[in-house]
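new request in #modeling-help
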Amino acid sequence: MEPLVNYLLISVALFTIGVYGLVTKRNALRMLFAIEIIINSATLNFVAFSRFLSTPSITGQSIAMFAIALAAAEAAVGLAIILVTFRLKNDVDVSELKELRG
Amino acid sequence: MGAIDLADIVFYILAIITLASAILALEAKEIVYGALALALSLLGVAGFFILLDATFLAMFQITVYVGAIAVLIIFTVMLVRREKWVEKEGVNRVAGIFVTLLVALGMGLVVLQSNIGQRVASKEAASFTQIGVQILSLYWPVIIILSLVLSAAVIGAIALAKLDRG
Amino acid sequence: MTQIRSFSDFLIRVIKIVAVLAIIGGIFVVATSFLQIMFGMSELPLPISPSDLITNPSALISLLTGLMDTDFFRISVFPGFTFVALYGAIAGLWERKLLAKMQMRVGPLYAGKVEGVLQPIADVLKLLFKELITPKGADRFLFGLVPVLTVVISTAAIAVIPVSEHWVIAQSDFGVLVIFAVLGFFPITVLITAWSSNSKFPFIGGLRALHQMVAYEIPLILSTLVAVMYSGSLNLINIVNAQSTYWFILFAPVSAIVFFICGLAEMERSPYDLPEAESELASGWLAEYSGMNFGLILGIAVYIKVYIFSALFTIFFLGGWLGPNFLPPEFWFILKTAIVTTMILLPRGVLPRSKIDVLLRQGWARFLLLAIVNIFIAIVLIQAGVIVPGAV
């Protein structure tokens, strides 16, 4: 069993990669990938902590289950939005979505 | 360090696979490869769950994330894909790297300098049957709200993506 | 190499190979005995020394039984890959003969002197010698990867399927979940297969296959929930042991029917074989695969899936390996699995194909409701005390 710090560092690394993708990329699909990576890093964090408590607890895993289910819902709606945008503008570049700009 | 046993080797290999696939998912030129790399990264996280004695959650993650969400993402990527996508360089790139380094250093220092490293794992993990007990007794509002959220998501996605045929 | 033109040629080739192997083995035995005598080594690091083999052949038996208990044997031979592949080959032949007799034809007749029993071998040999064509503009890496990936994923699901209480590769407390996690990979493989062929017919066929598979996964999982409720455990061995008085099919007939039909849809067999409709989409999402690529996907992986679903049906609803004691439990398991396989193979000769919209509507609306109906029946029976979870 690895020490807790290793799992937390992996979670930090995944979070960092996700944030980099979200800030840098302009393709809406890549940003969605980045969001999924961020959610996974948080879930890994929860499960790692739930294992390393002094009395065995399963709360972290329950929270992780809810997080996974919510991520599914969010991915579905996000992909529907991307599909509709693609149909309207034939492009998934988020910097081209300027209609509401003042 | 002491003896390096199999669990350590598996941990490092999984770490390399997960992080490399996550980077590949964002940087691959061909976006379908990126989507497949995302599926591989999710599998790597499931592997971490198995290492953390959360095998039930690992199977759940594989069934939901890799079996459903990754399929949805790959399917949409194939429909939306265009031959040439040029990611224009710009200010965003520099700002991105700066923010990333900030986040990485900040969180990394917090993790490394705290006392968290002293925690030792308890002897056995809790059994997975307690998840069911907790969901039905302690977290029952969450389940009800979650079902409503999922229904709303399904209806919303169908309503958005439906083609108006005449 | 000389061509194989008849069964006697085949036999001569086999005898030559066996002779070469025997000569090599003999040289090995003589050499090690020599080394033992010459260098005075007391023993070679082998479990049984080769010169001992000649003088005391009954020691070989304990060696073999020791080998049969290892994990490697289980993975590669008995409940593992070789058994499943042989089962698949025999199922393929049986399907063709069965459908032929139903349609008043003869089926494969010429390979092998008796009713074409060597037809699977002939098919494999033919596929091995064909040219592998990669379409122009196709994604080479994915195109070559997918057949291997399909077989690997199909085989991965048999890791938790027990043939009897002793013969299982990996006993797991969540066997049911592992099976469904692995089954969730099939839509991805279909999608990559369809896309990497870079051509229209396979892509449309692949999308149809994907929709069909995703639609029928949920009723499949819900229908196994009843078996899990009755036995109180996700472990496949406990599910079988809980059926020692009555099989679950008596208390969950609707679920058994739903499981069977959703299994037909997941395996893309008739009447749900629209994705590989031979007359419609020019063989659908596999159109661009030729030679052994085709043989791997359409031959091996499909029949491994047939084995998986037959075995799961036997375990969940038909009492697994439980049967009268005068025959070993493995025999009962294989017998029941063979009967279920026959029932899976039959609709191909009988039923017409469903249209895609009818298929999807049935999957999402009708079968989902039927599966939930049986869950309610199960809840009522458990609450009424008729069934105690753990032992029916």
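bot summary: The first helix of chain B runs from residue 6 to 27.
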